[in-house]
Write a structure and sequence with these properties.
The complex is a heterodimer. Chain A is an all-alpha fold. Chain A contains 12 helices and no strands. Chain A is globular and about 80 Å long. Among the domains of chain B are: about 140 residues, Rossmann fold (3-Layer(aba) Sandwich); about 60 residues, Alpha-Beta Plaits (2-Layer Sandwich), CATH 3.30.70.100. Chain B contains 11 helices and 14 strands. A 6-stranded mixed sheet of chain B has the order 6-7-8-3-9-10, with helices on both faces. Chain B is globular and about 75 Å long. The two termini of chain B are about 35 Å apart. The mean pLDDT of chain B is about 85. The chains are: A mainly alpha, B alpha/beta. Chains A and B meet through helix 1, helix 5 and helix 6 of A and helix 2, helix 3, helix 4, helix 5 and helix 6 of B.
């Protein structure tokens, strides 16, 4: 085939390994997600809290600044697990906003244009398709969760007058693990819900609803049955508990403490439901029953 | 080993048998898949692509099992689906490049082949426009371009002329003929339009109610029926007919110089002209009746109905 000849010729060159096709999907999905100016704007907005945290760390490690702020400010400027928990919480909820914007862009378009038959007729499995999209979303969310959080940790380790990083390694591990758990959950939830809704705006709303509506239901269950177990429907509370334990920070509210194992089980259950939803929806052909 | 081997393939979807005991070997350069709506053409294509798992039997493409080796098969297949199927938000060239990369072409080569494929199908001038702004005919062509870009061994076209106006249809048919002529690609063309298959294919698989109604080589079928001929002559008709019989033709003469004859395979039409010229006979009219695909199709439908009726009796 040549443009000027306008005739067909077979391709006889080398082909890429099959496993790299997932990376092709991820690359195109990543480019699609970031082709919107709103995504870039949101990303910049999401980094603002990190910049504020950076300034706080700078002030906390600067003797002149500490002297100027005085005694009460010393407590405010304590850089410890509690401080990083707050940073992680802030970034995590901004990641929810970002996921609810990006996830529908990755899947709803393909479904609306009925692109799956053509995509899946290539040497890529349904799992590969979902995994490629997952990678794109996970990478996008990583840029605003564990990456900036760990950079703040490194900066604190660098600018602290006393040796700090090695004695607080649990914070770094907690930041990484807590972020990875949350953004993995968000990615799979976002993709699953987007695969069932053809309109992007509606999909964005549904993702928010999936996080906050069960929390409301959980609060009602807790109030009516006078139990704490309703908190297991409350993802914000569950994740705060998990992050607090991973970072080794003191509990924020004693009444909202939930054991770790039920939290893990609930997250796994939610992920399984999402996988089921994706399995049902991501198909090259829909079998019409009846 | 054929291009496609079907060994007792049965596919059940939603508790309904859609393909029932399909057996046959398809060898043609361009294979037509014919049948009325709901005959199972698209289901067979989906089975060949590994989208459906046969509940019984096996299907093979180039000797590879459609379920176990589906990744390998898909790598060598270009598929143009029946319905709209594209990524509307992408430009034509980006879409074709994306599909070529998924098929295994390195990024740079994929871009080069995407441009070439789009020029080849006639979308060169609009290749930077978003696919969702294309007309229906352009969308069909961009689907063909993405199926061709990676240089497949088998090109599966599901209703390629669906929704096209006569000019666009003719263009699509011409493209298919060109691809067939080039020779490196085998084609499997599904259609319910007999004319499309007639113009492009050399072998046809006719499906009805999920079963094979007929599997035949169109050229051979035509050849077996090409011998029937009607002539209108002026001159020494009787002597001419005797000479023709001498060649081995069966023939009957009628008043007004009309001759009906059946020509054996080894006799060419040219031989008749030679004899007519030698004997000073003018052949004023020659009507060579060929068995059209429509005849083959109707016969297959008829046979199938008779078979079903006998089965019921």
């Amino acid at each position: 085939m040549a443009v000027y000849k306008r005739n067909y010729s077979a391709y006889a060159g080398a082909v890429t390994p099959v496993w790299t096709r997932v990376l092709v999907l991820a690359r195109y999905a990543f480019e699609e997600a970031w082709s919107s100016k709103i995504t870039v704007g949101l990303f910049i907005f999401c980094l603002l809290p990190c910049i504020v945290s950076l300034v706080v760390i700078y002030l906390a490690d600067n003797p002149i600044a500490r002297a100027l702020i005085g005694g009460r400010g010393q407590q405010m400027l304590a850089i410890d697990a509690k401080f990083f928990l707050k940073v992680l919480q802030g970034q995590a909820w901004l990641a929810l906003v970002m996921a609810s914007w990006i996830a529908p862009r990755l899947i709803t378009g393909d479904l609306a244009d009925n692109a799956l038959p053509i995509l899946l007729s290539h040497p890529i499995s349904r799992f590969g398709y979902v995994f490629g999209k997952f990678m794109a979303l996970f990478t996008s969310l990583s840029l605003m969760t564990w990456l900036p959080c760990l950079l703040l940790f490194v900066y604190q380790g660098y600018s602290s007058p006393q040796p700090w990083a090695m004695s607080n390694l649990q914070i770094a591990m907690g930041l990484l693990a807590g972020s990875v758990i949350w953004i993995s959950f968000l990615s799979i939830l976002g993709l699953a819900l987007s695969s069932w809704v053809k309109w992007r705006v509606v999909a964005t709303g549904v993702i928010f609803a999936a996080v906050f509506v069960p929390a409301g239901v959980g609060a009602i269950v807790s109030a009516v049955l006078r139990t704490r177990w309703g908190l297991l429907l409350n993802f914000p509370v569950m994740m705060s508990n998990l992050w607090q334990q991973l970072l080794g920070a003191p509990p924020i509210n004693e009444r909202l403490v939930v054991p770790t194992m039920p939290i893990v089980v609930m997250l796994l259950l939610a992920c399984l439901v999402c996988v089921g939803m994706l399995n049902k929806r991501i198909r090259a052909r829909e079998v019409v029953r009846g | 080993m054929g291009v496609i081997d079907l060994i007792g393939v049965e596919v059940r979807l939603a508790n309904r048998t859609v393909l029932d005991n399909l057996t046959g070997e398809l060898h043609g350069q361009a294979i037509g898949l014919l049948g009325p709506n709901g005959a199972g053409k698209s289901t067979l294509i989906n089975t060949l692509l590994g989208f459906h798992l046969p509940s019984k039997g096996k299907a093979r493409v180039f000797g590879l099992d459609t379920h176990q080796d589906r990744a390998q098969i898909r790598g060598g297949i270009g598929f143009m689906p029946e319905n709209d199927s594209f990524i509307g938000n992408m430009s034509g060239v980006r879409f074709v490049r994306y599909m070529a990369e998924l098929a295994g072409l390195p990024s740079g080569v994929a871009l080069e082949r995407a441009h070439e494929a789009l020029f080849y199908v006639g979308l060169g001038e609009v290749r930077y426009r978003k696919v969702n702004t294309y007309s229906l005919g352009m969308k069909q062509l961009v689907k063909l371009a993405q199926a061709l870009a990676h240089g497949p061994k088998l090109l599966i076209l599901d209703e390629p002329t669906n929704g096209l106006d006569p000019v666009a249809r003719q263009r699509m048919i011409q493209l298919i003929k060109d691809i067939r002529k080039e020779g490196s690609i085998r084609l499997l063309i599904s259609s319910h339009l007999l004319r499309d298959i007639d113009e492009t294919c050399d072998e046809v698989l006719i499906l009805k109610d999920g079963r094979i109604a007929s599997l035949c080589n169109i050229e051979e079928e035509r050849r077996s029926n090409r011998s029937f001929m009607e002539l209108e002559t002026v001159g020494a008709t009787e002597r001419f007919s005797v000479s023709i019989r001498g060649l081995g033709c069966e023939c009957a003469t009628f008043p007004g110089g009309r001759i009906k004859l059946v020509i054996p395979d080894h006799i060419e039409v040219r031989d008749l002209y030679v004899i007519a010229s030698e004997q000073g006979v003018q052949i004023r009219r020659m009507n060579q009746r060929r068995d059209s695909l429509e005849d083959i199709f109707l016969r297959a439908m008829d046979n199938d109905e008779k078979r079903t009726a006998n089965g019921r009796l």
